[in-house]
Specification:
single chain, alpha/beta, three-stranded antiparallel beta sheet, 18 helices, 12 strands
Length: 465
């Protein structure tokens, strides 16, 4: 879409009341019905807004200038790589029905050796440049299958980071099947951040995440999760929504287990043809949309009641996207240009040492960026914001909220990294609209309450670096 077709605002109704989202300022406002005819005609030269409403659309002149001329993008220094997902093994003892990696049989298969792991650590430290902190994650398959390599890599990375005057943080994504006293002690000792993949109630977990022999996994995993949480309470949970699974039911189950920091996401299609053919029509978002409507009601209700405990719970279960993220983006007027660090700040490294834009692309040769033993590293395609390369995103009112979305998700859904999945776009757009309703109706006392209770952080000073 051409720049002339990009609107500076989004006008919508919620329960009979009109609201305006100032896209360029990332700000939300309630609108009087008397102003609606004027807003619908905004942009025509003869239209003059009432003085009280001029602030709402002050960005229009700036938008018009941007439409009339192209502004060159300043050249930036190379962006340091600070996050690495290290695939210790592709083997997995579960057979999740939505797995986009064919149970570990994608790409080369197999497990990483110590030489490759050390090369990967050295590569990360080198690519981090002047950055003082790096993040090394263990992934799979199920990474604890190769626990000896995890221990050796943590020891090596800790020593090498210290020599380079850097700090290294470790994280691991696990299905929790292999957690025992030794592994939990190791997690504690080295302060590993743990994310547990777990899909909810017994009937859902057993159906979606069975063992390789077909046996359900719920009963064997739950005691291990509880044992870990008793010693390391700051553990996050991630659930995959398959079909029309009820997100609220899943959230409640994970919270009852003690996993207070949660993320939920719809299942993705696979980039591997054999797997993609097996899994069609796996994503239904109608129930997720209904859940968003309820979540917005919950936020409004509990803000009115000053129920800080419930609000903190809503915040913790936000998972990167949701009503809370939208409220924060609007109150802080955030402009997001990249969905994540894919290929920019983050890479995934296969068991053979091949480098990919992120962990989700590992094993797909078309997306290989280099190897940990080589200096050459081609990531040019990932440095530019998707907002400039994806026509659908450039004209979307939620463009500065989702920043184009997950490239792997686009590719697996539409066949192109430049074409987002419409069902995910629908979720993101509605999240922002509902967040705009809440943000637009917050009084100064409401905002002070949210800040004082550490539910919403204060807006950062623009001079803070």
């Amino acid at each position: 879409m051409s720049k002339k077709e990009v609107s500076p605002f989004h006008l919508f109704e919620y329960r009979g009341h009109p609201y305006l989202l100032n896209i360029e300022k990332m700000a939300a406002h309630p609108v009087s019905t008397e102003l609606l005819p004027i807003l619908h005609k905004v942009g025509e030269p003869q239209i003059r807004l009432p003085a009280a409403q001029e602030e709402i659309l002050r960005s229009w002149d700036l938008i018009r200038e941007c439409k009339e001329k192209d502004t060159p993008v300043a050249q930036m220094e190379p962006i340091p790589i600070t996050y690495m997902y290290l695939f210790l093994t592709q083997s997995c003892n579960l057979r999740c029905i939505y797995c986009y990696g064919d149970g570990g049989n994608y790409g080369t298969g197999g497990s990483m050796d110590i030489s490759t792991a050390r090369q990967a650590v050295d590569w990360l430290i080198g690519k981090a440049g002047k950055m003082k902190k790096i993040y090394l994650g263990f992934f799979g398959g199920e990474p604890f299958i190769n626990f000896p390599l995890m221990k050796a890599t943590v020891a090596y990375a800790s020593r090498k980071a210290q020599e380079a005057h850097k700090e290294v943080e470790f994280f691991v994504t696990t299905n929790a099947t292999l957690l025992d006293e030794e592994k939990i002690a190791f997690i504690q000792e080295h302060r590993l951040s743990v994310q547990i993949s777990f899909d909810g109630p017994k009937e859902i977990q057993d159906a979606q995440r069975p063992y390789a022999n077909g046996q359900g996994s719920y009963d064997s995993i739950v005691p291990k999760i509880k044992k870990l949480l008793a010693l390391a309470p700051k553990v996050s949970g991630h659930a995959v929504l398959w079909g029309d699974t009820d997100p609220q039911l899943v959230k409640a189950t994970l919270q009852d287990l003690g996993l207070t920091s949660l993320s939920l996401s719809p299942a993705s299609h696979s980039l591997f043809p054999a797997e993609s053919e097996k899994k069609q029509s796996i994503r239904k978002t109608q129930r997720q949309l209904r859940t968003l409507e309820q979540e917005a009601e919950d936020w409004s209700h509990h803000i009115r009641d000053r129920d800080q405990d419930t609000l903190r719970s809503l915040k913790a279960s936000n998972g990167g996207y949701g009503i809370y993220s939208g409220i924060l983006a609007l109150l802080h007027h955030r402009h997001k240009y990249h969905f994540c660090g894919v290929g920019r700040k983050m890479v995934g490294v296969s068991v053979t040492g091949d480098i990919y834009p992120c962990h989700r692309f590992v094993g797909n040769e078309a997306y290989k960026l280099g190897h940990v033993s080589e200096e050459a590293f081609n990531r040019a395609d990932y440095l530019q914001s998707s907002l400039y390369s994806q026509a659908n995103c450039a004209s979307c009112f939620a463009r500065y909220y989702c920043a184009g979305g997950c490239l792997h998700d686009h590719l697996s859904s539409s066949g192109s990294p430049d074409v987002p999945a419409e069902e995910i776009c629908r979720l993101r757009r509605r999240e922002l609209e509902l967040a705009a309703v809440i943000a637009a109706n917050l009084s100064s006392d409401d905002q002070a309450f949210l800040i004082n209770e550490h539910i919403i952080p204060p807006q950062p000073c623009p001079l803070d670096f």
